[in-house]
């Protein structure tokens, strides 16, 4: 069953936020990452493409599915914490 951002899972969002902070050694509290704020670019968390690759690697290890670097969906998937958590909820095998 595919989970839409409207059916967000706050617990999973916080889990993913904590994973991002840990994986990238960010100097922010996971709880301070807003669910709808952009993850990359000049706004929001400000991640770059290398950060996204590192997060994708951790996701594949922790949740059991691969995010492809050349996927056209990556912009949507990584647009916010909420969209990333929803994608994980829909595709995880672990």
Question: Which terms summarize this structure?
Answer:
4 helices, globular, 0% strand, 94 residues, Non-ribosomal Peptide Synthetase Peptidyl Carrier Protein, Chain A, mainly alpha, disordered N terminus
Provide the CATH superfamily.
ACP-like
Q: Please name the CATH topology.
A: Non-ribosomal Peptide Synthetase Peptidyl Carrier Protein, Chain A
Name of the CATH class: Mainly Alpha
Summarize the amount of helix as a percent range.
40-55%
Q: How many helices?
A: 4
- Whole-number average pLDDT? 89
Order of helices and strands: HHHH
Kindly estimate the percentage of residues that lie in beta strands according to DSSP.
Answer: under 5%
Q: N-to-C terminal Cα separation, in Å?
A: 15 Å
Inertia-based shape: globular
Sheet with most strands: none
**Uncertain regions spanning at least 5 consecutive residues:** 1-6
Number of strands: 0
Radius of gyration: 12 Å
Named at the architecture level, the CATH assignment is: Orthogonal Bundle
Q: Provide the number of structural domains.
A: 1
Q: Pairing-aware structural class of the strands and helices? A: mainly alpha
Report on this structure.
The chain is an all-alpha fold. The chain has a single domain, classed as ACP-like (Non-ribosomal Peptide Synthetase Peptidyl Carrier Protein, Chain A), CATH 1.10.1200. The chain contains four helices and no strands. The protein is globular and about 30 Å long. The chain starts with 9 loop residues before the first helix and ends with a helix. Mean pLDDT is 89; it is low at 1-6.
């Amino acid at each position: 069953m595919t989970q839409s951002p409207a059916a967000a899972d706050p617990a999973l969002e916080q889990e993913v936020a904590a994973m991002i902070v840990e994986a990238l050694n960010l100097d922010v509290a996971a709880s301070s990452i807003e669910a709808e704020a952009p993850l990359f670019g000049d706004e929001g968390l400000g991640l770059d493409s290398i950060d996204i690759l590192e997060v994708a690697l951790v996701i594949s290890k922790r949740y059991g599915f691969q995010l492809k670097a050349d996927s056209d969906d990556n912009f949507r998937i990584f647009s916010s914490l909420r969209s990333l958590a929803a994608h994980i909820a829909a595709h995880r095998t672990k």
